Amino acid sequence: MARKSSTKRKPGTTSVQLRWLAHARSGDKGDTANVGLIALEPEYFPILVKQVTAASVQRHFKGMVRSVDRYVLPNLNALNFLLHGALDGGGTISLKTDAQGKVYSTAMLRMTIPVPADIARKVVRSRE
Amino acid sequence: MTRTTVRVAAGQGFWGDWLEAPVRQVEGGPIDYLMMDYLAEVTMSIMQKQKSRDPNAGYARDFVPLIERILPALVSKRIRVTSNAGGVNPRGCAEAVLAVARKLGFAGKLNVGLVSGDDILPRLDDLIARGHELRDMDSGRPLSDIRDKVLSANAYLGMAPIVTALEQGADIVVTGRVTDTGLTLGPLFHEFGWRTNDWDKVAAGTVAGHIIECGAQSSGGNLLRDWRKVKGLANPGFPIVEASPDGTFVVTKHPHTGGVVNVPSVTEQLVYEMGDPRSYITPDGVADFTTIQLKQAGKDRVQVSGIKGGPKTPMLKVSIAYFYGYKAVGTLVYSWPEAYDKAKAADRILRQRLKDLGLSYEQILTEFVGADATHGRLAGPASPDAPEVQLRIGVRAPEKAPVDRFTREIAPLVLTGPPSVTGFAGGRPQVEEVVAYWPALIDRREIEPGVKVEILKA
Predict the structure, then answer these.
(1) Where does a domain end: B262, B296, B313?
(2) Which of A15, B175, B269, B320 can pair with B218 through a Cys bridge, CB separation 3.0 to 4.6 Å?
(3) What Cα–Cα distance (Å) separates residue A87 from each residue in A66, B120, B271, B314?
(4) Is the pTM above the cut of 0.90?
(5) How many domains does chain B have?
(6) Do A25 and B271 lie within an 8 Å CB cutoff?
(7) pLDDT tens across A22-32, in order?
């Protein structure tokens, strides 16, 4: 990988791409894509709850979605996002390759969030 | 006597799923029920299109040869089947199954339960006249806006008719638009004698059904977490629910199969196509997904417990398909060097030609496969060294003529556009009719009295 996914940000935190903190699956309901984001480790979940908000996800997908709703599932260490207007009409109408939002999940995992440095070190170790 | 465990196995996760799966579910170990879900939102539209060309079509045709393959084993092992393979023609589907049963020598030995009453197309005008607006749940528009374009209208039925069919001795239950989860709930309520207003049991069965309704997607297929570690997907074990009378259940798969059943694999399926997790609404009740507890309980075994639910709502969802217009998608492949720039130039040229021809479209959408097709701008700038980029351009219009002309404008780019182009061996793109989906709600009292269960004997 040419680009480093972890770069220094504000003191005490490191910016980490979601792919190292969570796994995800997405699907569709009409013109809305849903992305379920699941923490890879229970200790990552509170960080996701704090940093991956409806507002930050809407910024991430700016120009690609109309609005975002978020739901919290503490029992599954998961967050569920509804990305409204994400599928160019959705279903059979959409001309998109990903008309049913199957890989919106991976587009979400491109997002970076600030993570406490000690957790970030653990993430780096888990990748080795 | 009620059983202490009921095993419901998933055989198909959608129409077009792996044909070997039901065979291996039946032969690979003990199961009591085989559930086969064929209907996604867009599937009813496709089936409707087929039925309009051939009145005998309109159901999942794959279902019949599948039953032919497994019927001897189903009979000898006393495995019963629940399936919504009937699509928009459940009677045609049931009769095809009966024909196969007779051919195999099971005349007099097999009962097919036929569930009908979901089809409200013949009643639409009456319903609208009596004040049912059937507004699109997404746009809010009343159905009267597109009434003359409606091709099919089916209410989502729940488990009730399946329970009835099983009580009356059906070996194979064939339905139209019954919910995916109803196919699992029906066997559990029939076997355990649960009361249909025991909302926690309804919720538990709903979650069980949701976990297995997409087939191997909960047992290692399409699993993102540690995907390289998922072994044996050449022979994926489809999921099986082992349910207990107290409403808890274990998700597992047959031994000697590939894939994996673990907490991540089940969790990914739980969040698939999820809305508000506190109210997963089905015709049978409302499940609260924030109450689900998962625990690894051995290799390829996940214990599911704690599920709470609430009462069913007064409304049923209606799936309406209507004629929308036409679309076509054309592709060409451009090679290194500067593949992306060449594809972009071709797109500009094509759009100019369409404009010069005076053609208008509701939409023209261009994607560059290998650069931005799935992640849009999030993918970052395209690499000038990409070995190839596929230009993928789609158009949609209410009329057929401009779409048809578009399909004739792709191939000419090969000799009249940017260089290093290939990948047009497939010929001219096909014009497709767009049959679109219109979800609405209706008072369940309009539907439930008309739901019919028949037992047809082979």
Answers:
(1) B313
(2) B269
(3) 10, 29, 18, 30
(4) yes
(5) 2
(6) yes
(7) 999 999 998 99
